[in-house]
Specification:
Keywords: Signal. It holds the Pfam family Fasciclin. This is Fasciclin domain-containing protein. The protein is an alpha+beta fold. The longest helix has 14 residues. The radius of gyration is 34 Å and the shape is elongated.
């Protein structure tokens, strides 16, 4: 291929036409440039023109070593920016591994198509390694900030520009997950454990067919990584624009310890679905059947890693996040909200605190913020509120005649009742006999091994204005938590606030009643255990009416009207009490 001159006569004719069209421009260039000992022939390929010039011998040596002499010696059209001898560190580049030499130097100086330096130029040039470089000027020109000293050395297969220095390679965010450059070995190992290399046929240089199989003069491989799709963060693409919180090893260990406490799995757990792939010791067979032969240490470790990383990425092109483009180290971030790629939303101080003490490092497709402490609120990330709507909860009523889902609109609501019914529906549980007390069980999904403040929201009897009654009575209930202990044995515990174990609702409002704290010793997140068919494993809350007296004289209403159950992580419950008016939301609606 080195002496390949197919189509050269046509190319020469086009070169002469181009030379005629640019005669006036050339006279202007002479005012700004000398040839630096570089000359060329429009009848020669770019490679032949590079090779013929002694002042480009270092560039030629490196291109030959990288195999890109073959690329720029074909009939395909290229533009090459070649640095003069002595304007870059030849020895350090020559010592690079071959793949790095290709990616960081050879492909960083070559682009497809023809980019002449003529008149006013303002081009974003995509190089062979997909980096985007600015080519700018009007009479004098720069390429990615490097001075072009001899432009427009016309060649039969494109254009050669000579520069006063090499074009620096800027890694993208994914490439920068490199523990050789930064103290980020933990996150680097986690991500690169999922690396795959796939042939990029579109950007590989095709060769002849040998024995019926296509060969390549240059095989370009692209890295793919399933975690990028799991976290919805395309930080490997050059045309993307992201901000990434980058935990140092110190920050990673702090986060790992904090998250681990919330994800205490035990082998009895029925594993059905988790947000990870590649659980190396979990076969498809035991994964589907719920066998207890899984490596639960591996399960625990995988989910902890996922939880640490899922909230680290922000797409700067989203309206909420555009402020991150200009945020610099030491700046105080002032923003109403930020939205990450996991669709979690962070308001006010929650957003600004994430960047406190972090250092910005610019990359080719955004910026990373290196931090020694991930300041993500746990209730916004790995330990959120768990809310079970009464109408959606997996509930079963015992000793009851019926459970009914009741709609209520704002227009129908009694104006004398404070508050609103969540989601516009609530659940009624009716006793089977006038003197009996109903109970309802709600199974609790995605519970972590942590302490929750438990709330039950009751709806008063006269919530509907059209069924207004003067004889409105409160509920009085006992609340019990069902769970499994550390040995997997089913247990129950009656909730209390101090010594109080019976809780009465307020008939003047849709009343969210605090019924006590409870600590789950085991984690159920991702297990698929959340319904009655798995009652021996699923955590649940049981609400029992404890109305006394004859039905017509009892001071309490036996009918349960439940809007929702809410498990609030105890650290959030305390924070809200200490910060009245605190605004938070885990996910975008």
């Amino acid at each position: 291929m080195k002496n390949n001159k197919i189509y050269r006569n046509a190319a020469v004719a086009m070169a002469f036409l181009a030379a005629g069209a640019m005669t006036t421009a050339c006279s202007d260039w002479d005012d700004h440039y000398d040839n630096n000992g570089v000359s060329g022939s429009a009848s020669e390929t770019i490679w032949e023109n590079v090779k013929a010039n002694a002042n480009l011998s270092q560039f030629a040596d490196l291109m030959h070593k990288a195999g890109y002499d073959e690329v720029i010696n074909t009939t395909q059209t290229y533009t090459v920016w070649a640095p003069l001898n002595g304007t870059f560190n030849y020895d350090s580049l020559n010592a690079l591994p071959l793949n790095n030499l290709k990616q960081h130097f050879a492909m960083n100086h070559v682009a497809r198509f023809n980019y002449p330096a003529s008149g006013s130029v303002d081009a974003a040039v995509t190089m062979l390694n997909k980096k985007v470089m600015p080519f700018l000027g009007n009479g004098t020109y720069t390429f990615n900030g490097v001075e072009v000293v001899s432009p427009n050395v016309a060649s039969s297969n494109g254009m050669l520009h000579v520069t006063n220095g090499m074009v620096n390679y800027m890694a993208n965010l994914f490439e920068s997950l490199d523990s050789m450059a930064l103290p980020i070995d933990s996150i680097s190992r986690y991500f690169h454990n999922y690396d795959q290399k796939v042939l990029d046929e579109a950007n590989s240089v095709k060769g002849p067919v040998v024995d019926g199989r296509l060969t390549y003069l240059d095989s370009v491989f692209v890295e793919k990584n399933i975690l990028l799709y799991l976290h919805k963060a395309m930080i490997h693409l050059e045309d993307s624009n992201y901000t990434m919180l980058l935990p140092s090893d110190e920050a990673w260990q702090k986060a790992y310890k904090a998250v681990k406490s919330c994800f205490n799995y035990k082998p009895f757990t029925f594993v059905k679905d988790i947000p990870q792939t590649n659980l190396k010791k979990a076969t498809a067979e035991n994964f589907d059947t719920g066998s207890t032969n899984l490596d639960f240490d591996l399960l625990n470790d995988s989910i902890i890693h996922y939880m640490i990383c899922k909230d680290l990425f922000f797409n700067n092109n989203l309206y909420h996040n555009r402020v991150l483009n200009d945020l610099q180290t030491g700046d105080q971030l002032s923003v109403d909200s930020l939205v990450n790629t996991d669709r979690s939303i962070f308001y006010g101080n929650d957003a600004s605190d994430m960047f406190a003490g972090a250092r910005r490092i610019d990359k080719s497709n955004g910026s990373m913020w290196l931090t020694d402490s991930l300041r993500l609120r746990p209730w916004l990330t790995y330990n959120p509120i768990i809310k079970i709507q009464g109408e959606y909860g997996a509930a079963k009523s015992y000793n009851a005649g019926a459970t009914t889902i009741v709609p209520i609109s704002k227009a129908e609501q009694n104006p004398d009742i404070q508050g609103n019914v969540s989601n516009g529906y609530y659940l009624t549980v009716t006793p089977s006999a006038p003197a009996s007390n109903p109970e309802a069980i709600f199974y609790l999904p995605e519970v972590r091994s942590t302490t929750y403040a438990v709330y039950v929201c009751f709806v008063p009897e006269n919530i509907n204005a059209s069924t207004y009654t003067d004889n409105v009575r409160p509920n009085i209930v006992q609340v019990t938590m069902g769970y499994n202990d550390l040995k997997g044995k089913p247990q129950e515990q009656v909730l209390k606030v101090g010594t109080k174990s019976l809780f009465q609702s307020d008939i003047t409002k849709v009343d969210t009643v605090y019924v006590g704290d409870f600590t789950f010793p085991l984690c159920y997140y991702g297990t698929g255990i959340s319904n009655i068919t798995q009652a021996s494993y699923a955590p649940y809350i049981r609400i029992n009416s404890r109305a006394t007296g004859k039905p017509n004289v009892s001071p309490y209403d036996r009918n349960l009207r439940i809007d929702y159950i809410m498990l609030v992580p105890k650290d959030l419950d305390n924070y809200i009490k200490e910060h009245p008016g605190y605004k938070y939301q885990h996910e975008i609606d």
